[in-house]
Amino acid sequence: ISQSHLHKRKFWLKFEEELGLYERRIFWLSNLSGISTLSGLLGTVIGIYISFQNMKISGSASAEVFADGIS
Fold this sequence. Notes:
By secondary structure, this protein is an all-alpha fold. The chain has helices at about 5-60, 65-70.
């Protein structure tokens, strides 16, 4: 086995080790981005729900009543 072959083998072993670390980190970043998106959507849904509740309570469908729940 040549010296060049040994260097290439060491390089690829180290590369695979580092790649594993990056793949684990990307997994967590992927999950975090998914959760962030869903939490934003949940906030929107809750705001719209509050707006419709305000319209029901006040008996008015005016923009002022609707906007209170969205802000």
